């Protein structure tokens, strides 16, 4: 009996222990489920905290504004270069025989005049009007429209067998194609010009055509061929022509700049500058000073580059060459910015903007 009671007591204790353990596990499981599925609901949007922005001083804001203005200048630079090239070509083309008409005469009136000369079969006056129309469209920034008129003029000159005018018009056509980036056609007409001039023993004009051929070859990255054309063809024909020697030096310098041969480029720009002094060619002098300054900037000699720009600025101001002044002021500002001289950079960009807005209004 006593043994039986002992067994019952042991069984009861064991049952109580197991039940308590299982009940504890159930409570733990129940609590985890509550935490998972019975979280308090949030009403409304999540909390948003504004980022803490850095405090920018007025001086830093001014610097950032100047930086932005120089970025805008860099965007404008290709358009200004193209405009300058267009106006330069238009000025050169104006040396062609043109019809003596008022400057304000528009294209429609010129076309009416051309038709009247066609009706009268007046070839020489047709050429003059065609040339005038060609120059009109180049100066208006639509060189592609000038091509047809210059081609018609050239064809009429071929009928008239005026070989000197043929050479001149071929050279003009080549210049327009070069401006448009059509280098294949540019080379075709430069070659036509130089061949005709050599046949006429007009060696100075032939040398000029060779220089232009070399320049186009350089644009095509055919540097060795371009260099040889200048040394073996253009310069030998330019012994007595300082303008052509000056242009040859400039063309060589451009070739070396494109190849990053800066010391050679600088030397030839200096030779160009010396000849410009001899000829009192102020525009070429300014261009050579700008180019020398750009080489010095590339080589890290910013102080000397600024001196060259200041001399170029002086000459351009005296002669009222506003297009050159725009480039000079902009380039000087770039150097000041590189030097961290924001006061001078700000002044330069102000002057650049005033000149540009006045010139292109």
Explain the layout of strands and helices.
Blueprint: H1 2-37, H2 58-93, H3 107-119, H4 123-139, H5 143-160, H6 163-179, H7 183-199, H8 203-219, H9 223-234, H10 242-258, H11 262-279, H12 282-298, H13 302-319, H14 322-339, H15 342-359
Helix pairs in contact: 2-4, 2-6, 2-14, 2-15, 3-4, 4-5, 5-6, 6-7, 7-8, 8-9, 8-10, 9-10, 10-11, 11-12, 12-13, 12-14, 13-14, 14-15
**Would you tell me the overall average pLDDT?**
86
- Helical proportion, percent range: over 70%
Q: Report the principal-axis shape.
A: globular
Q: In terms of per-residue confidence, which ranges show pLDDT below 50 for 5 or more consecutive residues?
A: 12-16, 18-26
Secondary-structure-based class equals mainly alpha
CA-atom Rg in angstroms: 39 Å
Percentage of residues in strands: under 5%
Largest sheet composition: none
The count of strands amounts to 0
Task: Give helix and strand order, one letter per element, not per position.
Answer: HHHHHHHHHHHHHHH
Number of helices: 15
How would you describe the overall organization of this protein?
The protein has 361 residues and is an all-alpha fold. The protein is 80% helix and 0% strand. It has 15 helices and no strands. It has helices at residues 2-37, 58-93, 107-119, 123-139, 143-160, 163-179, 183-199, 203-219, 223-234, 242-258, 262-279, 282-298, 302-319, 322-339, 342-359.
């Amino acid at each position: 009996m006593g043994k039986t009671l002992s067994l019952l007591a042991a069984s009861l204790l064991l049952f109580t222990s197991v039940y308590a353990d299982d009940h504890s596990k159930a409570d733990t499981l129940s609590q985890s489920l509550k935490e998972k599925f019975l979280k308090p609901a949030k009403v409304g949007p999540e909390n948003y905290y504004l980022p803490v922005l850095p405090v920018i001083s007025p001086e830093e804001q001014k610097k950032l504004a100047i930086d932005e203005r120089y970025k805008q200048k860099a965007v404008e630079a290709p358009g200004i270069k193209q405009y300058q090239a267009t106006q330069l070509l238009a000025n050169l083309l104006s040396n062609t025989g043109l019809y003596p008409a008022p400057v304000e005469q528009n294209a429609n009136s010129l076309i009416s005049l051309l038709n009247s000369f066609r009706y009268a079969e007046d070839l020489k006056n047709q050429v003059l009007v065609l040339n005038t129309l060609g120059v009109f469209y180049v100066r208006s920034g639509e060189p592609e429209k000038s091509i047809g008129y210059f081609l018609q003029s050239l064809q009429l000159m071929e009928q008239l067998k005026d070989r000197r005018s043929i050479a001149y018009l071929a050279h003009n056509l080549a210049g327009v194609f070069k401006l448009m980036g059509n280098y294949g056609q540019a080379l075709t007409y430069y070659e036509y010009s130089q061949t005709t001039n050599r046949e006429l023993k007009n060696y100075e004009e032939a040398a000029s055509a060779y220089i232009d051929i070399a320049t186009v070859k350089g644009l095509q990255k055919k540097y060795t061929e371009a260099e040889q054309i200048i040394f073996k063809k253009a310069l030998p024909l330019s012994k007595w022509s300082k303008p052509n020697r000056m242009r040859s030096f400039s063309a060589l310098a451009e070739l070396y700049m494109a190849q990053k041969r800066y010391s050679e480029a600088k030397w030839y720009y200096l030779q160009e500058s010396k000849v410009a002094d001899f000829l009192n060619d102020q525009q070429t002098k300014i261009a050579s000073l700008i180019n020398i300054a750009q080489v010095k900037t590339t080589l890290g000699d910013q102080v000397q580059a600024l001196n060259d720009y200041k001399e170029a600025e002086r000459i351009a101001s005296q002669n009222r060459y506003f297009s050159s002044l725009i480039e000079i002021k902009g380039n000087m500002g770039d150097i000041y910015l590189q030097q961290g001289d924001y006061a001078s950079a700000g002044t330069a960009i102000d002057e650049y903007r005033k000149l540009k807005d006045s010139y292109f209004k």
